[in-house]
Design a protein that fits this description.
Distance between the termini of chain B: 25 Å
Order of helices and strands of chain B: EHHHEHEHEHEEEHH
Largest interface: A-B, 53 and 42 residues
Number of helices of chain B: 8
Strand content of chain B: 15-25%
CATH topology of chain B: Aconitase, domain 4
Strand order of the largest sheet of chain B: 4-3-2-1-5-6-7
Oligomer: heterodimer
Structural class of chain A: alpha/beta
Radius of gyration of chain B: 15 Å
Strand order of the largest sheet of chain A: 4-3-2-5-6
Helix content of chain A: 25-40%
Strand content of chain A: 15-25%
CATH superfamily of chain B: Aconitase, domain 4
Largest sheet of chain B: 7 strands, mixed
Chain lengths: 420, 164
């Protein structure tokens, strides 16, 4: 029976020769992930099971990134609960302040996820690792608890949408623009319960960083997972990260897809999602002046080194507009260090931006850049729901690091070519 | 499972950030979470919701974050059942796992209005609108999912060995 890439990974992890869409399976997982917000609920549930050890202490990861460094006493208590649990359970991959980074930037960087893995994470953006050819999906805390106990998770095998990429991105256009374009095209529930499988010759022209950004936002189209064909770039990324030996799965030529979309990368323009849904997309060249109060460059979507390089290239030798609070958040300590060594942090600070320690912080309205009533931000993050970055009457516009940096300089939504 | 209750109705794409804003996720206390339920969408919800009320909504209910705090807040607020045109998948899973009954039924979710009284029989798959007299047939859960629900959620099914 012909299978998609996702179906092949699931079949292998369920010990089955083949699976088909709609089938309910129990699969072995290679990694169970949680953060400082979702893990406390999982720990509470886990304790009800009365087990004194997790299924595999190497295969659980807990990352203190959302409200860490602790934003208040309650957040401190939640991190403490995670810290104690990981200590008691002798969990290897516990990442606290000093080692931590935004979880979905951290795990690939440390080689904790490789092609062919099944990963569940109590965070919706766990789908990020599909960029590396893994099946990874967001779940809730109870799933996380049961995953930690049994090393298994139940899944309904998804059907799939195929995205055949061709051509090459133009200057100032990035993976973020492609995924925003796609979400604008299919809608926030356009891939509900389904896999989004990316393939085609155009895929090879995208950096792994662009792919991570695109897979990250598969959830914003409602998808169960987003997954990219594995190529040499993927394998060298995993090698450099020191990951275990990957297993490469490819979709069968006659695998069934509900729909195939051909995306010509050369036609994509810098794109922004207006409030309050990621599907409200417009290309930057067609919008009127929209004045902004804040810019956030960071997050699991766009906080990698490549993103900071792009933003710094735009900001170099320029000044952010007076009144636009520009916050740059390297996603991990390693990225922070590299950005420092490359002089990017100097560029940001000289331009009038501020640089923060790694955290999810403002992306979900936690801390480090909350918006007041009526304020507007351009952010390289992933969601622009009501109240997402602060006051319910504030607004978030989603964009690439290039657009965010250009907007910081002009004080309105702009693209780098507007600065010439 | 049978339910009888009054309807509180919302539209499409009700996301988990409005169900329970992230600024309140520094606690796992169920009552505290419930006290902020729906706050950024409907500030009147907490004061008007009654034990046993039924929430009805449009497409893609519960989209966004994987926070289990969202179905927990809804359940703890007194809502007995959520009927929607469709559910975002993580919310759907979380609801089953924590034992918040949900029904996907586009036809019923379209027609049912705020304040209607419903009579719902989940085993038979029937939603009856007591106010209008209309009746809707729903799809039962797959057997695997029913096992989780009848065991009392995922944790209980593992404890009882329903799921290995």
């Amino acid at each position: 029976m012909a299978m998609t890439m996702t179906q092949k990974i699931l079949a292998a992890h369920a010990g089955l020769d083949s699976v088909s869409a709609g089938q309910l399976i129990l699969a072995n997982v290679d990694m169970v992930l949680g953060n400082d917000i979702t893990s406390p609920v999982a720990i509470r549930e886990y304790k009800k099971l009365g087990r004194d050890s997790v299924f595999d202490k190497e295969k659980v990861a807990m990352v203190m990134d959302h409200f860490a460094p602790n934003k208040d006493i309650k957040a401190a208590e939640q991190c403490k609960m995670c810290r104690n649990f990981c200590g008691d359970m002798d969990i290897t991959n516990f990442y606290d302040v000093g080692q931590m980074g935004v979880e979905h930037a951290l795990l690939p960087e440390r080689g904790l996820v490789v092609s062919g893995d099944v990963v569940i994470g109590a965070d919706s953006h766990t789908c990020t690792y599909g960029a590396l050819g893994a099946f990874s999906t967001g779940v809730g805390s109870t799933d996380m608890a049961c995953g930690m106990a049994t090393g298994k998770a139940w899944f309904k095998v998804p059907s799939a949408l195929k995205f055949e990429l061709k051509g090459k991105l133009n200057k100032d256009v990035y993976g973020k623009d492609v995924i925003l374009h796609i979400i604008g095209m299919i809608g926030v529930d356009g891939a509900l319960y389904k896999s989004m499988e990316f393939c085609g010759e155009g895929l090879h022209t995208l950096s792994v960083s662009d792919r991570l950004c695109m897979a990250n936002m598969a959830i914003e189209a409602g998808a169960k997972n987003g997954i990219f064909e594995v190529d040499d770039q993927t394998l060298s990324f995993i090698r450099e990260a020191g990951g275990k030996e990957p297993t490469v799965y490819a979709a069968d030529a006659d695998a069934e897809y509900e729909q195939t979309y051909v995306i010509d990368l050369s036609e994509i323009k810098p794109t922004v999602a207006f409030p309050h849904l990621p599907e409200n997309t417009h290309t930057v060249d067609e919008i009127d002046d929209i004045a902004i109060d804040q810019v956030v460059i960071g997050s699991c979507t766009n906080g990698r080194l490549e993103d900071l390089v792009i933003a710094a290239a735009v900001l170099k030798g320029r000044q952010v507009k007076k009144g636009v609070r520009t916050i740059v958040i390297p996603a991990t300590q390693k990225i922070y260090m590299q950005a420092m060594e490359m002089g990017l942090l100097k560029t940001f600070i000289e331009a009038g931006a501020t640089v923060s320690t790694p955290t999810c912080g403002p992306c979900l309205g936690g801390h480090m850049g909350i918006l007041a009533e009526g304020e507007r931000a351009v952010a390289t993050t992933n969601r622009n729901f009501v109240g997402r970055m602060g006051h319910p009457k504030s607004e978030v516009y989603l964009a690439s690091p290039a657009v965010a940096a250009a907007s910081a300089i002009t004080g309105k939504i702009s693209q780098p070519s507007d600065l010439d | 499972m049978k339910f009888q209750g009054d309807v509180i109705k919302y539209g499409d794409n009700v996301d988990t950030d409005v169900i329970i804003p992230a600024r309140y996720l520094n606690t796992i206390d169920k009552k505290e979470l419930a006290s902020h339920c729906m706050e950024d969408l409907d500030q009147t919800f907490v004061s008007r919701v009654k034990q046993g009320d039924i929430m009805v909504a449009g497409f893609n209910f519960g989209c966004g974050s994987s926070r289990e705090h969202a179905p927990i807040a809804i359940k703890e607020s007194g809502i007995a059942l959520v009927i929607a045109k469709s559910f975002a998948r993580i919310f759907y899973r979380n609801s089953i796992n924590i034992g918040l009954p949900i029904i996907e039924c586009p036809e019923a979710a379209e027609a049912i209005a705020e304040g209607n009284r419903l009579d719902v029989d989940m085993d038979q798959g029937i939603i009856r609108n007591v106010t209008t007299g209309a009746e809707y047939k729903t799809e039962p859960f797959p057997e695997f999912v029913q096992k989780i629900i009848t065991s009392g959620g995922l944790i209980e099914s593992i404890k009882k060995g329903t799921i290995q």
